[in-house]
Amino acid sequence: MSILGTRVIRTEDPRLLTAGGVYVDDLRTPELNGAARVTFVRSPVAHARITGIDASEALAEPGVIAVLTVADMDDLAPPPPSSGEWDGSPAPLGGPWAEPLLAIDTVRFVGEPVAVVITDSGYQGEDAADLVTVDYDPLPVVLEPTAAVSDEILLFPAADTNVCVAQAASADDTPFDACDVVVERDFVNQRVACLPMEGRAAAASFENGRLTVWVSSQNAQVSRFILAGALGMAPEQLRVVVPDVGGGFGGKIGIDRDTITLAWAARKTGRALRWAETRSENLVAMTQGRSQLQHIRIGGSRDGRILAYRIDVIQDIGAYPRIGGLLPFLTCLMAPGVYDIPDVQAGFRQAVTNMTPIAAYRGAGRPEATAAIERAVDLFAAEIGMDPAEVRRRNFIAPDKFPFQTKTGAMYDTGRYEEALDKALAAAGYDQLREEQRRRRASGDPRQLGIGLSSYVEITAPDPDAGETAKIEVTDEGSATVYTGSSAHGQGHHTAWAMLVQDELGIPMDRITVIHGDTDLIPVGVGTYGSRSLQLGGSAVHKAAIEVKDEARRHAAEMLEAAEADVVLDTSAGLWQVRGDPDTALSWAEVAGHTSGGSLIADVSFVQDRPTFPFGTHVSVVEVDTETGQTKMVRHVAVDDAGIVMNPVLTEGQRHGGIAQGAAQALLEEVLYDADGNPLTSTLADYAAISAPDLPSFELADSETPTDLNPLGVKGIGEAGTIGATPAIQNAVIDAVAHLGVRHIDMPTTPQRVWTAINEAQKASHQ
Amino acid sequence: MKVDLTVNGTNITADVEDRMLLVHFLRDVANLTATNVGCDTTSCGACTVLLDGESVKSCTVLAAQASGHEVTTLEGLATNGEMHPVQRAFHTEHGLQCGFCTPGMVMAIVSLLKESPHPTEEQVRNGLEGNLCRCTGYHNIVRAALAAAEAPAEVSA
Fold first, then answer.
1. What class, spelled out in words, does domain B85-150 have in CATH?
2. Residues B138, A684: C-beta atoms closer than 8 Å
3. Is 0.80 surpassed by the pTM of this model?
4. Which of 243-282 (A) contact B at CB < 8 A?
């Protein structure tokens, strides 16, 4: 029996549970013996000209080795010029938008690095950083997206606009004119923090002309590529090592300016250096997510057919456009969601503001798309007085229409949307819930029940042609080592990859070692983001295993003096033999020993023709106290279909975590700034990170619709939970108070917002 | 100043800065790196350890305050190579993903189960309010705590 699809608990855990992981700051590697500490001096103002930096007082402090500013970066070439036009790649735009490593003459957000202090110890660094005097001449700030696109105050005068990427929506009103009902509304998809429990961390050592950088990242190889470009080094002069990573969620894709600066400083000073940011730094200087102002228009017929949908997005990208137009591009691509809508118009403007840069956060553009359409569908349903489940049902793309080309250009591979809805409604007991809701409404219960739906589809492995690498080596000891270009930071790659190899080769998991995140061992790789690991990285491992098997078969045939076609592998025992003759059995060790080098090696890369599109339906049940506005999540039912499930333990873990992050955005979390651009949520005492008492246990129902785009039949599951959960919970909160006249509440649906919405609706109804 | 701590049964004496936090003592002096720092406001619980058997956030205790006391970290939880029931339950229930919050979570639950050996789900959730996890959605952490409470072996620190 295949191990695939079974509940295998993780091989990673015993080490993490008894000794703890080895995260960057835990490294005790000899190269980092006596490493000095880096402390960043960061801008305390949102927008200002720097008129002077005086480090003399800091330099006089004990333990201070150096204070470095951009003026010391004379060994770096200026960034290459750019047209400022977005070419579709998730890279900074450069040109007039170029982001320096340390501020040159202007700071554009609170937390922007201005200087680095290098000290013997961390405590000395904090003391000395306080003594670096930076003179700031304040400039007016731009915070609101609408203010940003007005271009009245410019962040980059040379660009002559704050709008760095735009993609206009068609503005054809004709399809709306033909509708019985049209609803139009603004939604705020608020700025949130990625908040991996391990913040950013890096260390570097420069010896004999070679720079080694240890970094908490989602991609070692991409990090090396970025470093090579920024530091003007050949890739061979650089080694990037990614040890255990304490969560990423998009915020650790590649590396950012702070880590590049640390690596540069190690080369400049010749000192081994290390840095692990504080949470207060993390909450202002790690990229954040979402932050879209969405204007939607939805129209249809009174019998529940949606005929036209338009979304115009203003993407606040923060102070520097690090990730090009990727996020709102994905929002527009996924705008129509699971619905077969005859006319879809989607466009965006992406504008810089004086806030922390925005980049990928779990879902990266797709949660924003789903939140918009799922809220819009509920508004439409409310307007025509139809149950939201029924409106969804009437508009789904039918299962016989796949592969389905959407009006926005996506090619959905496979989907059974109505089935997912039915499963979720059945698991939740939808009719009984509505009955209970009617009862509470009729009795005027202060604790009202809200039932929220979200039917979603999302895009995973959005860059399938970038592919992923895998190398498998089976030695004459009969053990296997897997080198993967994919990058684990909690997902369970080591367990999953070993399962794939055991299944294909019959080598038991405990004899399989998985290695990731070291560019000396794995020079080529892409890494983990966009829910791409299993479908690309896993398929690469599968492909490598098959190649190793083919190679082994040739050797076994030679050893057994049999035709290759007659030699078979018994994967239950891991033995090669002539078909039907167990006496001829050869172990992997024996076959590998037959090769000239004593090992069997396959080194492959796997690319996929197109992205895959997981889907599902979430049902959220909440209780809202109408007297206080307080929401309590009572139940959360999720059907997430990401193709074949390879290990339910891992898949469920991804879904649980995803749902919690969705709940966090729907109910609690928001990065806030005051009118001057000062962050108000720069500590965990102020940022409302979701915790265990805020959540119920989750109810997961299974669904497996394979894709034919990879040999494993799998799609990505890392982000689906967040994409499905966020609008379901928001819709549930609004549904709880809909009978009081409330049609919309922006996220997070805090008690204050809910209470205000109820009171405003009541006032309006009495006028 | 001179401090004298017993960490996981081993006596450690060192001369440290007055302001040294217990968590930095554990990581940088005792070289026990399982205990992590996840925030600077005593909010996240990643640094939770046991001080004389009770859970504390070691980022909010000075090494000096712990002088003369016994500290247990994740590294000191297993006995004779056998995982503690809470560690075992985290493994079987998939109560961890990236592992960064895990040492603090495990220690917090050890302490919680000592105070309340057979908690309800609600008691576990409320008891973990001061420990943040970004990966698991707490679902399997709560299950691990409940499973550990029902584990045959005695739960003790």
1. mainly alpha
2. no
3. yes
4. 244-247, 249, 276, 278-280
